[in-house]
Amino acid sequence: MRTRAALVKAAAEEFDLAGFAGTSTTKIIKRAGSTMGALYFHFGSKEGVAKAVMAEQAADLPELSGRSGLQRLVDLTLELAQELRSNVLLRAGVRLAVEQGAFGVQDDTAYQLWITRFKEELIVADALGELREGVDPGAFARVLVGAYSGTQLLSRISTGHADLTERITELWQYFLPAVARPEVIGKLEFGTRGPETGT
Amino acid sequence: MRTRAALVKAAAEEFDLAGFAGTSTTKIIKRAGSTMGALYFHFGSKEGVAKAVMAEQAADLPELSGRSGLQRLVDLTLELAQELRSNVLLRAGVRLAVEQGAFGVQDDTAYQLWITRFKEELIVADALGELREGVDPGAFARVLVGAYSGTQLLSRISTGHADLTERITELWQYFLPAVARPEVIGKLEFGTRGPETGT
C-alpha cells in the first residue's frame, strides 16, 4: 500500500505540473521510484491513476478546527480555497475532475464525495436549528458543490486562484439568506479562522 | 468570412464529438470543405480554433422572448440549459472553456462575455426595482456565471445534462432570497417559458 500511495502522490505532482495529456506513466513511476508493473497492478492505466487522484483529492487536508454546524461548513469551504493554492493532491484532483472530459473519463465520484461531506455538516447545522425551515441538506449540498466547482474554475482561469477566498465568501453571501436563519447569518465568521478550539 | 464561419461550425462539431485531444485540424478542414491554409490564416493553430469556438459559443442561440428584468435572466439561464442539449456550438464552446487547462489554454473571454450579458439583464432588473437594496449587478453576474458553470459541469458528468433544467431552477431558489425583492420572487416563472410577447 505504500507503493500505491507513492504512485498517487507522484501522479498528482505530475498532473498538477503538466495536466493529463502532458503526463506519461513513465514520468509518474520515475517520480515515485516505482515500476510500470506496480502502476498497472494498482491502477490498470493512466486513466485509472487519474481517477484515483480525483477520488483521493481530500486525503492530505489538515483537520478542521472544532467549530460546528454551518460555521464548520463555511470554514471547510474557505480552507479548501486556501489549500487549492498549496495542496498539490487537492489541486490536481480538482483539476482532473473538471477536465476529465478532455481525456474521455466521465466519473462523478469526487463530486459525490464532497456532496456527502457537505451534507453531513448541513445535517449537523439542521440539528442545531441553524437552517431555515424546508432547507434540504442533501439538495443544498449538491447545489453548493456545483456552485463551488464553477467558482474555483473561473477563479483559476482568471486569477490562478488568487481571488478564490474572496469569491467563496461572496458566494456564501448570496446563498445564506435562503439557507440560514437570520440570527445565525450575523454570527458567522469569514476570512481568517478563529483559534483552534477542538484539539 | 463565410470560410471562417464554416470552420468554426465544423470545429465545434468535431470538438463536441471527440474533445480537444481527439480532434485534428485535418478533420476540421474536411468537415468544413476548407483548406489547411484557410484554417491557419484565420486561427493560427488548433488552439486558436478552440478559442474561437469558446468565444463564439453563443452565436447560434435563438432570440429570447420579450420578457424583461429578472424574468428575462431566468429565461436566459433556462434556455441555456435546454440549448446545451441540442446546440452543438454552445455545447462545444462550454466544454472547451471548462476543459481548456487540459490543452494548455488559460482564457476567460467566454466567461467574461456571459458575466457582461448577465450584468446587462441585472441592470435592467435593478432599474425596474426588482433587486434587493445593495445587490451589485456586476458582482452577482460573476457569482452566477461561476455557479452556473459548475452546475452544468456536474450535471453533464452525472446525467449528460438530462437534469440541468431542474438543477438551474434549484440554483435560483437558493439565490433569489438574497437577490430579489420578496414580491418579485413570487411572480417569477420557471419551467416552460410563457408565450412569445416581444415579437
Describe the structure.
Two copies of one chain form a homodimer. Chain A has 199 residues and is mostly helical. The first copy, chain A, has two domains: 2-55, Homeodomain-like (Arc Repressor Mutant, subunit A, Orthogonal Bundle), CATH 1.10.10; 69-185, Tetracycline Repressor, domain 2, CATH 1.10.357.10. Chain A is built from ten helices and no strands. In chain A, α1 (2-18) packs across α4 (46-55), α5 (69-83) packs antiparallel against α9 and α8 (137-159) runs antiparallel to α9 (164-179). The model of chain A is unreliable at 194-199 (pLDDT under 50). The interface between A and B is large, with 44 and 44 residues.
Residue stretches of chain A low in confidence (pLDDT < 50, at least 5 long) are 194-199
Oligomeric state? homodimer
**Sheet/helix structural class of chain A:** mainly alpha
Largest sheet of chain A: none
| Name of the top-level CATH class of the largest domain in chain A | Mainly Alpha
- Shape type of chain A: elongated
Helices and strands of chain A, in order, run as HHHHHHHHHH
Alpha carbon gyration radius of chain A: 18 Å
The share of residues in helices of chain A is 55-70%
Q: How many β-strands of chain A, per DSSP?
A: 0
| Count, helices of chain A | 10
- First and last CA, distance of chain A: 29 Å
Give the rounded overall mean pLDDT of chain A: 94
- How big a fraction of the residues of chain A is strand? under 5%
CATH architecture of the largest domain in chain A: Orthogonal Bundle
Number of domains of chain A: 2
CATH superfamily membership of the largest domain in chain A, which one? Tetracycline Repressor, domain 2
Q: CATH topology of the largest domain in chain A, which one?
A: Tetracycline Repressor, domain 2
